[in-house]
Amino acid sequence: MKAIISDIHSNLEALQAVLADIAKSNVAEIYCLGDIIGYGPNPRECIDLAMKCQMILLGNHDQGAMFDPDGFNPPAERAIFWTRSQLETSGEDQSKREKRWEFLAERPRTFKEEGHLFVHGSARNPLNEYVFPEDIYNQRKMDRIFAMIERYCFQGHTHVPGVFTESLQDDSYQFQSPEELENFTHKLDERKTMINVGSVGQPRDGNWRSCYVMLDGKDVQFRRVEYDIGTTVRKIHDIPDLDNFLGDRLKDGR
């Protein structure tokens, strides 16, 4: 059994709560689909915890901290520059700083395992492409993405969890949110399928609780975990370089 997490975004309280929830189950491995940092107040601590995962991908915010951020809105860009300063000028010794930078620099963009593809964004653009629930009506986009999937693809990036499947009867596509699944569980079958695992540190589906998935054979179960959101919000509000909005939005899951 694997736990698959994504989009931590420097939210230490959320990550700690999710790891504690995972520890209650018989999980052999934890896979992380990227965006360990960005937006939130604890980039160093989140990287240190993420290093313990068995597989970790590069996210666009992780890349933005290493290079000049491209395509970010102003609050996200300011958060990236602040994050970079925290990784460069912490009061810790140089070896710890270098270890974190080396860790980020070595992250792959994709990982394949037994017919399973793991990406941050999409199979077509692993780093930056968003696939939203409403994209099921964009036939051309979905056709091109699904053509690049062997069988199953796990992704994050949008912070909106759910299951995309192709129809076996026609050329249409379906999306189901976790709440629309029986027992919050999807059973993988012969259809090509994309699973968005949601976000640990900044859900955007109207639910403030952290989200991740458990993969147990063919069963994909979505898990929601409460965390000390008040502490995270206060930390963000106390950092001038992080917009208050980045904390306020957590309370609304948006």
In short:
The chain has 254 residues and is of the alpha/beta class. Helix content is 31%, strand content 20%.
Instruction: Give a quick account of the main beta sheet: strands, pairing sense, barrel closure.
Output: 6 strands, mixed
End-to-end separation: 30 Å
Radius of gyration: 17 Å
Tally of individual domains = 1
- Counting helices, strands and paired strands, the structural category is alpha/beta
Count of β-strands: 12
Percentage of residues in DSSP E strands: 15-25%
Q: Any idea what the CATH superfamily is called?
A: Metallo-dependent phosphatases
CATH architecture: 4-Layer Sandwich
Which term fits the overall shape?
globular
CATH structural class = Alpha Beta
User: Biggest sheet, strands in spatial order?
Assistant: 3-2-1-11-12-9
Helix content: 25-40%
Look at the structure and give the mean pLDDT. Answer: 95
Order of helices and strands: EHEHEHHHEEHEEEEEEEHH
Separate helix tally: 8
Using the coordinates shown, work out and report the CATH topology.
Answer: Purple Acid Phosphatase, chain A, domain 2
Uncertain residue ranges: none
